[in-house]
Amino acid sequence: MAYLTFNEYSSFSTTVTQEQFSALEQQAEYAIDDATNDYYQLNSLTDDRNQRRARDFKRAVAEQINYFAFIGSTNSYEQESEDFKSVKIGRLELNPNSSVVATTKHGLCRECYQLLGKHGLLWRGGVVMLPRIPKRLCNQTITILIPTGKLDKYRKPETQSQEINHVMVQPQTIYSGSNNDRTVTANAIVFLFAEISEPMPKLTPDCVGWHLTFEGREYAITNFVDNREPYTNEVYSYELEVI
User: Fold this and answer.
1) Is the pLDDT of residue 214 over 60?
2) Nearest 5°: phi and psi at 131?
3) pLDDT (tens digit, 9 = 90+) per residue, 54-104?
4) CB within 10 Å: which end of the chain, N or C, has fewer?
């Protein structure tokens, strides 16, 4: 089954026609499978609970398709002797007189490489633990309102507050759906990192629907992502999409 349908591709880009799409999508799959050690050949893309990773993976396939369409070749030996003027298509940009090969890593265009890399899909072994983000970059504090399982005198769920320091909050709008049928599902992501955030709570998907406060505003958790260390299954980080 293809990683990306033409309808999905059309929600990211309109560079390639439907007639061109199938062949280029297959070549993009080959290049990405090689770079990711067949991650989504061995794991289900459809069933991936990390929706952001699955969504960015599909975006990466679309970027690689655009790249192959732009250079007119899917083979590295046909790319090596070609230079281009400054051209920009979507987020793909080639600088004057830079060779095509110089803009790629492991056969992937820069945009595709970055999308895959930020989710650890290009990890190729050699170390067991993922590198830690510097603590000095995690300067925000949140307060999670954790349900106690009890009701107050007004029959509303009681909560207890837990302040968590050294987190990272990144405002960004996240949508579900495509084209004109899109709904905002989050307007920020809160990152909590094991061994960095203090105290690091133990969260499960049940936290969806909980509330937290940040800089005087209250947010509801709409999606939960649990990132684990390779081999050890220890928590590396949590991502909380909030609105």
Assistant:
1) yes
2) -65, 145
3) 999 999 999 999 999 888 765 553 444 444 445 443 434 545 544 555 567
4) N
Cβ-based neighbours of 147, under 8 Å, separated by 6 or more = 157, 158, 159, 210
CB 22 within 8 A of CB 68: no
List % helix, strand, coil for the chain (3-state, nearest 5).
30, 35, 35
Name 144's bridge partners. 162, 212
Question: Is the Cβ–Cβ distance between 71 and 28 less than 8 Å?
Answer: no
∠ at Cα 44 (232, 229), nearest 5°?
A: 15
Phi, psi of 139 (to 5 degrees): -110, 5
Distance of CA 9 to the CA centre of its chain: 17
pTM of the complete model beyond 0.85: no
Spatial separation of the C-alpha atoms in residues 138 and 123, rounded to whole Å? 23
Q: Say which DSSP state 135 is in.
A: G
pLDDT of 81: 44
Q: How many other C-beta atoms can be found within 10 angstroms of the C-beta atom of residue 27? A: 16
In this prediction, residues 18-29 reach a mean pLDDT of 92
**Measuring CA to CA, how many Å separate 105 from each of 85, 99, 172?**
20, 13, 27
Q: What are phi and psi of 234, to 5 degrees?
A: -75, 150
Query: Within 10 A of 211 (CB to CB), how many other CB atoms are there?
Result: 15
Radius of gyration of the chain (CA): 21
Mean pLDDT confidence for 140-157: 91
Residue bearing tokens 């510097």: 134
